[in-house]
Amino acid sequence: xxxSKPIAVAIIEDNRLVCEALAAMLDRLPDVRVVxxxxxxxxxxxxxxxxxxxxxxxxxxxxxxxxxxxxxxQTPGAKVIVMDLIPVNxxxxxxxxxxxxxxxxxxxxFEEFVVTIRSVASGAKVLPPRLAESLFTQIAKQxxxxxxxxxxxxxxxxxxxxxxxxxxxxxxxNKEIAKRLNIATHTVKSHVRNVMEKLALHTRLQIAAYSxxxxxx
Length: 217
Prior knowledge:
By secondary structure, the chain is of the alpha/beta class. The protein has helices at 16-27, 45-48, 64-74, 89-98, 110-121, 129-132, 135-141, 148-154, 159-169, 174-181, 185-199, 204-216; strands at 7-12, 32-37, 52-56, 79-84, 102-105. It folds into two domains: 7-128, Rossmann fold, CATH 3.40.50; 135-216, Winged helix-like DNA-binding domain superfamily/Winged helix DNA-binding domain (Arc Repressor Mutant, subunit A), CATH 1.10.10.
């Protein structure tokens, strides 16, 4: 049953076509009202006081995690839903730790977007099954009793993956690693995802611990 007041939704997305199309579709719903949509919309959040903020995880000129934190500070009552196409588990963990309320995949149906918005607005936490059951979890389950040490010994890293592991061990962020190696940030994310899958690890901290262990071995 729709709430007595429409759900005020803000969209922070730097793809203008996606932003405008999503805003137009949401505005057709009787229980949703789009109060703002643009990549720079964070400057007007306090004035419009949205219930739900849809945030693109891959903003080109901004750190989406920092934007999420800023949104929640500016409007404590707002629930943040992160939109991503190919999410990396480490990013999901960082957003969850920051306090976001949900995730929706960009290739989800419009109905899934709507269900996620309504669920989060009602106080639920939403994580798509595809994120909950990630590939590295399956690898960890399939270690078939060989033990973590034997599993790590059998893994073969590419040169670039090894460099990424070392830089994570130094405490560098994805953007800092991208700058150091002169590659795109999304490429770094891809390498981190591959490392996690190969090592059956779950977080950057575990990668850093593995890096330190390799140095002292």
